[in-house]
């Protein structure tokens, strides 16, 4: 299971070296705490408040031989600087990212609310706490004045972009065309796997409709 963040501007992904030891999810006023190893699908109600995440874990030093299977060979200092840069990005909600957890349905736009790393220990390990908040786009409204003096309010909501699979298509090729990088195929697969005929990401059928992740739209 991988925990990663994708920058929609650069199309680069930052994968945490090891899964967090604890993840807390706040949906509305309800707090749910998970062991990431056993994390499953969660149904989300409509009209909800933005989801908030708190991750607690370890960024292992490169000399930490006790952790052989790491997902990222970046040093804790490099990872900390990248996350801190995102957290300090200018804007009303900071920097928009996409938070993806493989083997689950978690694939959600977020911004970093807070990042709290500790000082490295003897192995160069850094413990951290990371707070995330779901990114919610604003709804734009157009107000037209009628001749009668009444005002008509019309909501303009972003429409999801879709793509119909053609013969010879692959998820990598579609991700490259719509997301700018073939390496984003996993994000495309995660967003659509529940409605595709095959459970194999290497096998998609002509005529199937894929929803392009909203973070890819420009």
Your description of this structure?
It is a single chain. The protein has 218 residues and is of the alpha+beta class. The chain has two domains: 3-134, Elongation Factor Tu (Ef-tu), domain 3 (Beta Barrel), CATH 2.40.30; 158-216, Membrane-bound Lytic Murein Transglycosylase D, Chain A, CATH 3.10.350. The chain contains three helices and twelve strands; from the N terminus they run βββββαββββββααβ. It has helices at residues 76-87, 171-179, 185-192, and strands at 3-6, 13-15, 22-27, 30-34, 52-59, 97-101, 107-117, 126-134, 140-145, 151-156, 161-164, 209-212. The strands form three sheets. An eight-stranded antiparallel sheet has the order 2-1-6-7-8-5-3-4. Strands 9-10 form a two-stranded antiparallel sheet. A two-stranded antiparallel ribbon has the order 11-12. The model is unreliable at 41-46 (pLDDT under 50).
What is the compact description of this entry?
With 218 residues, the chain is α+β, with helices and mostly antiparallel strands. It folds into two domains: 3-134, Elongation Factor Tu (Ef-tu), domain 3, CATH 2.40.30; 158-216, LysM domain (Membrane-bound Lytic Murein Transglycosylase D, Chain A). The protein has helices spanning 76-87, 171-179, 185-192; strands at 3-6, 13-15, 22-27, 30-34, 52-59, 97-101, 107-117, 126-134, 140-145, 151-156, 161-164, 209-212.
What characteristics describe this protein?
218 residues, alpha+beta, Elongation Factor Tu (Ef-tu), domain 3, Membrane-bound Lytic Murein Transglycosylase D, Chain A, eight-stranded antiparallel beta sheet, two-stranded antiparallel sheet, 13% helix, globular
